[in-house]
Amino acid sequence: MTDTIAKRGRGMRREEILGAATRLFAERGYEGTSMGDLADVVGLRKASLFHHFASKDVLYSTVLSNLLEEVFRAISYALTAEGSIESRLDGLSDAMVAALSSNPFAARLLIREIMDEGLVYRDRLGPQVKNVVDALSGVLTLAQESGVIKKNVEVQHVLLSVIGIHFMPFVVGGITKHVTGSEPFDAAFVVARRTAVKAHLRALCGT
User: Fold this and answer.
1) How many CA atoms lie within 13 A of 80 on its CB side?
2) What number of CA atoms fall less than 13 Å from residue 196's CA on the CB side?
């Protein structure tokens, strides 16, 4: 029993560290974030952080991989769900908005790393990003084969637009608030955004 409680406590501490690290990396970038800063935020000694993560590189890679995995699961849902392709595209939008809105720093950190093409992206994250993009492309190709996307519409450009409409409102929070009057992670905004992106996706598909 004691071991089980201890393991649960370590797991909760690890999640707390990952959450704080995600925020700091998104706000300050990799170079601007130190393990000492993170230790102060989570109330641990710096040496204790290395008990959970062997290095800042390992921590950073774990943060990014976890965020990408959430997005990948959302896309995979659309590929495997039952129902019409239209309902699966709607499910894709719902799942992606849910994944990106559940963590206020996810979209910003992922886009920042991909734009910078940092060491983690080049060495480890690139293949994971490719898997996400390929999975999303697969959903849209299936939609075109099913007649949901018109044959004269270039799927590659739909793909780029789909990435933009799902990610950018959560990346440029200041602009989102200026345009809509709402914080991008407010519950009311998330509900409205889920409705909007589904309509936009239908329009992009020519349906």
Assistant:
1) 8
2) 11
User: What is the dihedral angle through the alpha carbons of 123, 127, 132, 134, rounded to the nearest 10 degrees?
Assistant: 150
Q: 193 with 97: CB under 8 angstroms?
A: yes
Please state whether 81 falls in left (phi above 0), alpha (psi between -120 and 50) or beta: beta
Contact status, residue 143 vs residue 149, Cβ threshold 8 Å: yes
Contact 35, 57 (CB under 8 A): no
Residue count of the chain, please give it.
Answer: 207
Quick check: 44 and 53 in contact, CB under 8 A? no
- DSSP SS3 for 178: helix
pTM (two decimals): 0.75
Mean pLDDT by 10 residues, the chain (207 residues): 41 83 85 90 88 89 83 74 83 86 83 78 77 84 87 88 91 92 93 92 77
Q: CA 35, CA 173: separation in Å to the nearest integer?
A: 26
Give the number of other Cβ atoms within 10 Å of residue 101's Cβ: 21
